[in-house]
TrEMBL record:
It is a multi-pass membrane protein. This is Polysaccharide biosynthesis protein. The chain crosses the membrane at residues 20-42, 48-67, 88-112, 124-145, 221-246, 298-320, 340-363, 370-388, 394-416. It comes from the Bacteria. InterPro entries: Poly_Biosynth_Transport. It is found in: Cell membrane. The keyword Transmembrane applies.
Amino acid sequence: MTADSEPSLARETGKSAGKIGISLLVAIALGYVFSFLTPRLLGPIDNAVFASFWGILMGLGGALSPLEQELSRQSAVASMDGGRVGKPALRALTVGAVAIAVVAAVTIAVPVLNQRLYSGHLELGVIALCGGIAFACQFATRGLLVGHNRIRPYSWLVVAEAALRAVLLGLVVVAGLTGVVSFAIAAAVGSFAWLLFLRPARRLVDPNLEGEGWRPVTSRILLLLLGAGLTASVITGYPALVNVLAPGGDATRVGVLFATLQVSRVPLLLLTPLQALAVPTVVRLSGSTDGRHRLRRLLALGTVGTLVVGVVGALVGLLIGPWLVKLLFGANYASAEGWWVAGMVWGAVLLTALQLMTAVLVARTQANKVLVTWAVVAVSTALVLVLLPGDTILRAVVGLAVGPTVGLVVAAAFVLRRPGNVRATPGV
């Protein structure tokens, strides 16, 4: 990359971010429709069951986010060479889909997990299994599109996922089928939105093009999926993690807590498009000395900004959080407390920064550091859930605050080091 090309890259990245930003706003709005209506329609006790299922479904999807990042990396490298991705991309998709299917099957087959995660509803586990496999295809499609800078279809895919859920939820409500299973089906349908974008994605793949074999692809993808699975356990899958490690507690209060958690988590659920955009951008910026200096400055400023936003957000949550939860979900959720919201907002802001920082590490092909970062977050959170004295509510909120804080320190140390050039891997 030359110095003259950097302004062009900045303009291109800005335009792409703007288009994706618009689609994000639409998708966030549709996501809020789903997240706000389900607690209202189900009530606190049934919402606790649905929130655990939702945690598993979105946790499976969240665990697959590195598949999008890896394929966006391969796609960006191929695009810079004027070509298409080959067999390594298809191998990565296969490994991701099989791994997720195995994990989902375990939650169905092991009785204690089935009971704690799905409250004995076997059908919820089957729905999560189908949705998880579909998510593998969805994230692979998104990675191919964004890596080749096909921002328009990528943006439409982001919107389509949330729109399908919202539309089907509306149909379910009109039909009077307002139960946990019906809402679970509506939630899983969104992961099949990739079928609408299969044609433009297939044009970016050459299935006869050789490249990395099964062994390196499998080891890298499994390592990334493990890290993302740890990530998902403290983001989208947190209700499920709480049910497994800190079971019990008043069912109504736990349902209120999970509804409150949804408010702070919806933007995180839809942040993955920005992660995917970060990967090819880092690849291109890291091709020159000036680009790497600029990247480090942006990362340093972003870390400081995260702490400032986290403090402000926590104060706002402390002051108006309970009122907002009652306004959104109704009088049945009036027992939410300010300190719950403050802890959740602090954790959510730091998790947002952590997701972007680990996307930088993916772009540098430093999968081991991604794994270490999220292992620190997940283990810190799990230790709080298991060891902290107090009820389920206290442990859940403190765990959300402590884990991301420790993880941010580790991630910042990794990404602010001076990396070497990010070069294309031969055959990828």
